[in-house]
Amino acid sequence: MSDFGASSVEISDVTRTFGSQRVLGSISLSIRASSFHCLLGPSGCGKTTLLRIMAGLDTPDTGVVTIGGTDHSRTAAHRRPTNLVFQSGALFPHLTVADNVAFGLKTDRRTPQGEARSRVAEILDLVAMGEYADRRPATLSGGQRQRVAIARALVRRPDVLLLDEPLSALDLALQLRMRRELRRWQQETGTTFVCVTHNQSEAMELADEIAVMNAGVVEQSGSARDLYEQPASRFVASFIGENNIFEKLTPMDEGHTADGLVFPAGRADSLAVRPEAIRLVPADHPASRGPGRVLTTSFTGKSVRVSLRTSTGREVLAELAPGATTAQAGDTVGIDFDDAAVRRFGAAA
Amino acid sequence: MRRSPALEALRFVFLLLVTIFVLAPLVVVLLASITPDEVLTSLVPKGFTTQWISQALDYEPFRVGIVYSAQVAALATVIALLLGTPAAYALARTRVPGAGLLRSVFVAPLSLPRVVAGFCFFALYVSLLPSAYGTVGGVAFAHVLLLLPFVVALVGAGLAGSDPALEEAARDLGASPLQAFFKVTLPQIRMPLLIAGVFSFLTSFDEVDLSIFLMPADTTTLPVAIFLRLQQDQDPTTSAVSSLMIVASLVIALLTGLAVRRAGLWRTGRTEGTGE
């Protein structure tokens, strides 16, 4: 598996407008060679358009796409060192699995037939589809079809493999299994993988680096840990993992109140506190930042999740170690968290 | 829900009548062409003869007509497919300005009376293209006008039913736009193409109204030859040649049906499952 390619991708100031709708508003993004990079965002955020621009299936209005140091902004799709795995798989229904995979080797005519055959066999083995080589796509399950689609793109040994929501059509158990496999295939081939997804847990599990997109811009790009611990915007804070977000801050002598809780001083439009940073203390405890009435508690195995309502009616989620609380629904407790656990967005940024 | 026996009987009678209505003329012609009598007097054949069929095949205008019709139909079909397929493709897959208008233009010949169309072509050929009058090319060209709406509609429906992502996938895998069309798009629409081709061939082969304006009486397509002969003579020779056309059409329709069913195999049985 040593002949697989890997290139970095550099996207500078790419914009794209469909009619009067601005889909991408000046995107700049660096993707390291041999990394697994996810473009994560809600539907309609422009992530698929950005992926299609990298593939050459769509053309940016302005901006430059550099792959492996070469400007490919105006290169036609069939001449790019990239291959795309379509959301639907887009397998050719009239060809067998082996012919589907061989398709991209026949088009460039540079691969001798014998070598093409062995490469098809090798890649089908990698995705565990070797025994289905003579089947038609219509006879395969959704997961099998997606494996073939990935093999068909990988067999060309692209410098960059682009994946458009490759797992979204599969059921959850299969998704979880294929995440690990995708990760393994990326590591075994060393190819740069760029994967579009709207599923944050998928992105966190797969990616070395995640670019969080919203409304046509990249809000933040970084490792899953960076995004989780240091979200750069309110959107990232709410999109990556669970978060309690507080708005409508009222300044006090020392600090702010928001939704009936006291926060440390500092300029901000909104504040976020992760559920796992929240502690429950007795209601009259001096550390309490405000009272909360317990709405529900549930045990998930690793934690106890407690849903609380503050004095202003705002719902707050706390995730505690099992045994860390004996609070029952209906109890009133004090809500506490460290100053350092509070993330600020807006005015202070 | 249970149907009453009376309703069942009514349904049976109705279907029987429709079947008789459709098949009766065909049966009469088939019987007339193998019965020794000059004029068919009974639905029970009084013998069997191939006399009329061999007479029909010996009759010079019919022999010329079969070849002439086949040439016209083949040429018209090829031209209609070559023009209609790219037109349907452009309408289905690209953003052509005025696509709606173009669609109407392609369907317009359907609403033009064929006799009028025939006269228009006659006027065109006589005034500007005298050399096209009475030639295979001239007649075929006129037929293309009739066939294009069917080709554009059938191929267009085929394209609408095939996934545009397949073509993008082909290009992504290194196929030029032309390669992508021939290797991926064309195989998706081969059934609509086959059906459009067969339909075009049969329509052109059978055409009288328009063709009759475009050829001299001594060298005509088969249907026109039948029409002209019937004006002079009503013997079973005409029935015989008609029978040949009926049988040939049925055979072609049957073969097409079989081809469509076979090709359907890799489409049906599609599992839309998401698990493994």
From TrEMBL, chain A:
PROSITE patterns from the xrefs? ABC_TRANSPORTER_1 (PS00211), ABC_TRANSPORTER_2 (PS50893)
UniProt-recorded Gene Ontology molecular function terms: ATP binding
Q: Does the keyword Transport apply?
A: yes
Q: Does the keyword Ubl conjugation apply?
A: no
Alphabetized SUPFAM superfamilies for the sequence: MOP-like, P-loop containing nucleoside triphosphate hydrolases
Under the heading Gene3D superfamilies, the entry gives:
P-loop containing nucleotide triphosphate hydrolases
**Tree of life domain:** Bacteria
Domain ABC transporter stretches: 9-240
What keywords is this UniProt entry annotated with? ATP-binding, Nucleotide-binding, Transport
- The residues forming the signal peptide are none
Read off the InterPro entries from this record.
Answer: AAA+_ATPase (IPR003593), ABC_SmlMolc_Importer (IPR050093), ABC_transporter-like_ATP-bd (IPR003439), ABC_transporter-like_CS (IPR017871), Mo/tungstate-bd_C_term_dom (IPR008995), P-loop_NTPase (IPR027417), Transp-assoc_OB_typ2 (IPR013611)
Q: What is this protein called?
A: ABC transporter ATP-binding protein
UniProtKB/TrEMBL annotation, chain B:
Query: Would the keyword S-adenosyl-L-methionine be found if you checked this record's keyword annotation?
Result: no
Its keywords, alphabetically, are:
Cell inner membrane, Cell membrane, Membrane, Transmembrane, Transmembrane helix, Transport
Predominant location category: membrane
- Cite the InterPro entries for this sequence: MetI-like, MetI-like_sf
The membrane topology term of the UniProt record is: Multi-pass membrane protein
Domain ABC transmembrane type-1: start-end pairs: 66-256
Which residues are listed as membrane-spanning? 12-34, 66-92, 104-128, 140-161, 193-217, 237-260
Where it sits in the cell: the answer is: Cell inner membrane; Cell membrane
What is the superkingdom listed in this entry's lineage?
Answer: Bacteria
* Disulfide bond keyword on record: no
Q: Which Pfam families does the record associate with it?
A: BPD_transp_1
- UniProt-listed CDD domains: TM_PBP2
PANTHER family linked to this entry: INNER MEMBRANE ABC TRANSPORTER PERMEASE PROTEIN YDCV
Family listed: Belongs to the binding-protein-dependent transport system permease family.
Identification of the protein by name: ABC transporter permease
> Which species is this record about?
Kineosporia mesophila
